[in-house]
Write a structure and sequence with these properties.
single chain, alpha/beta, Rossmann fold, globular, 7-stranded parallel β-sheet
Length: 361
């Protein structure tokens, strides 16, 4: 059976990394797997993807992938195609209709529809909304990465077949990465509890709130904050750290090939976002044994933490409440067995089992 997984562009980010884990999981089960990547800004090494045939289309925009996808479907005739992100989903479904592909197609939505669709006539979001309505019946499965997002799609489209299937986060490779050694001095010396945050350095990740929360925590408990990730907001965060006199307490370590080894050596992971799809980093940190503190933002954190059963939820834009939760997490960490239980729905075995049931293969 030939399985094809498509992602519009490759970067060190949630959607493409999730699609790669998906491809690896199917390959390990013996399927013939193609991974199609629309565009990558630089060369990446995919030699570790054993059993996965990686195809680069070199198309920087989703719409320019149209003819390549049509050609691929005609030539290789895959049995099942998995796509993620609504713009690509629409193009793939239209291609399948045009070439009369017999492939079973699963399309997955990864971000809130309120950021994708619009009711304003003739805007890009408005056109996409009506176009997806025309082609969506060609899909054999229509999924979202959180239950909250399914509810949002029902608000936008009223009648919809969206159902929740999580990303793969827990697999054999992740367990190996968790055990790698970290050379960071704070972690080696471990003189203070380590708080960690991770994500692109962009405004909606709420890192200023996390930094100010850690400043508040340090009034009574000495801790250290490590933030992993890179992005255009780095300068503003560096200025904030220096202005608040936190240079010896907060460090921005930039992009890390293996963030899991950092999570495994931290005490508390904080998700400070204002919006998410399903925050992979939160699940990864829990998998590594970190007690989670997360903003109750749309969508995902409340669902992952089961309303507070598996961690501490706090309001958005509220550093003081976040500081209180961090101190609670340090005093009363979530038991490791509970964290293992919480991340089981994100395992490769569970996610593939669910897709096999939905698509009947």
């Amino acid at each position: 059976m030939k399985i094809t997984i498509i992602t519009p562009r490759y970067a060190i980010a949630g959607v493409p990394l999730a699609q790669i884990r998906f491809a690896k999981a199917f390959a390990k089960k013996g399927y013939d797997v193609d991974l199609i990547i629309g565009y990558a800004e630089r060369n990446f090494d995919f030699s570790s993807l054993k059993g996965v045939n990686v195809i680069f289309l070199k198309k920087p925009r989703v719409i320019t992938m149209f003819f390549s996808i049509c050609s691929y479907l005609r030539k290789f005739k895959p049995d099942i195609v998995f796509s993620a992100e609504d713009h690509l989903n629409a193009v793939l479904l239209f291609c399948a209709i045009l070439v009369r592909s017999r492939a079973k197609i699963s399309v997955s939505s990864r971000v809130t529809p309120f950021d994708t669709y619009s009711n304003k006539p003739f805007t890009k979001g408005w056109v996409l909304k009506y176009f997806i309505k025309l082609v969506i019946n060609r899909a054999n499965a229509v999924t979202c990465v959180s239950q909250d997002m399914v509810s949002q799609y029902k608000q936008i489209f009223k009648k919809t077949r969206h159902q929740c299937v999580y990303n793969i986060i827990k697999d054999a490779d992740s367990e190996i990465k968790m055990k790698e050694r970290v050379g960071d001095c704070w972690i080696i010396e471990k003189k203070f509890p380590i708080i960690i945050g991770a994500g692109s350095l962009v405004p909606w990740k709420g890192f200023p709130d996390l930094i100010m929360a850690v400043k508040e925590v340090n009034k009574t408990v000495s801790v250290r904050l490590i933030i992993l990730g890179e992005g255009p907001f780095r300068g503003e965060l560096e200025n904030l750290i220096n202005r608040e006199g936190l240079a010896g307490i907060v460090r921005l370590l930039g992009y890390q090939d293996n963030p899991l080894k950092f999570y495994s050596n931290a005490d508390v992971f904080v998700l400070s976002s204002y919006v998410e799809g399903l925050p992979n980093v939160l699940v990864e940190a829990m998998m590594c044994g970190c007690t989670p503190v997360a903003t109750d933002c749309p969508t995902g954190p409340r669902e992952v933490l089961q309303g507070g059963k598996y961690g501490y939820l706090v309001p958005m834009h509220d550093p003081k409440s976040m500081a209180v939760a961090i101190k609670k997490a340090l005093r009363n960490p979530i038991p490791i067995q509970s964290l293992i239980e919480a991340v089981e729905p994100f395992s490769d075995e569970e996610v593939i089992r669910k897709y096999k049931r939905i698509l009947q293969f």
